[in-house]
Structures are given as C-alpha cells and as structure tokens.
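Title: Prediction job returns without error message
Component: structure pipeline
Severity: low
Priority: P3
Assignee: unassigned

Description:
Job completed but the reporter wants confirmation the result is attached to the right record. Sequence as submitted:
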Amino acid sequence: MAVRFAVIVCLVAVTAALAPIQAHGTERADKVLVDKSDRQLHLLRGGEVWKSYPIGLGFAPEGHKRREGDGRTPEGDYVLDWRNPNSSFYLSIHISYPDADDKASAGKRGVPPGGAIFIHGNHRLSGRKRDWTLGCIAVTDAAMDEIWQAVPNGTPITIRP
C-alpha cells in the first residue's frame, strides 16, 4: 500500500513539473496576433480574439526587421519559445526571430539579422514615446502579468504590418 501511494505521489509530482507555466485557474491563449498598424497585441483562443492590449514597437516600426539595429519589429510567423522572469523590462517572452529565412535574407545583404526580440513589460502608455524599443513589443507590466500567465512556451505568434 505504501509503495502504491509513493508511486502515485511521484507521478503527480512529475506531471506537475512538466506542466507549462500557468497559474491555477488561468485560461490559456492558443495564438498571439500582433497588429503593428493598430498597435495592438491580441490573445486568441479557437481563432477568436480573447483579450487585447495596446503596445509599443521598435523606434522605426514600419516594415519588416531587415538587420540588427534598424529599430524595426519583425513581421511574420514565429513562436514564443522561452521566457525571462528576470528581464530588465519586468518580464519577457522571447520571439523566435530570426528564422532561417530572416538569416538567409540578411546574409544575402551581408548584414546581421539581429535578434533578442521579446514581448516585454515596462511600457508606459503616457509620458514616453509610443514606439521606443529596439524591435521588441512592449506592453504595460499589468498586461505582461496576464500575457505571462496565459501564453505558454511554444505558442505561435503572427506579427502583421
């Protein structure tokens, strides 16, 4: 009986350890959609917008990121692949830019593609220029708390012009 109980406890512990980061009772998004022109980040569930947040972008937001330092936020389909709870910008979730196409395109032009593109906090909707990042997507810390809980690693993200 004690062995059976120990096995059950171990299985529960392993299952909990392997579960994605998520607060108890928090609903999850299955995709993130960023609309650069409307300055909005949308969490989607079942193809429908569930929640939306105002955003700030790179300091030169128009167009797809073409090289390191251009101040543009990438456009296209990526994955939110890892997170940093100790970010200089409150919390941050990494976007998988650059992908193979981005690297090849930059390589043809002989320039580095850039990287370290995140969704992160530390955005103030007033008192700061709207688009100020180096290419990241900035939201308020309160919005980042919600996104952090609702978006597990591996979630797809589409960034539209």
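Comment from assignee: result matches the submitted record. The beta strands are 31-35, 40-45, 48-54, 76-84, 92-95, 118-120, 137-138, 155-160.
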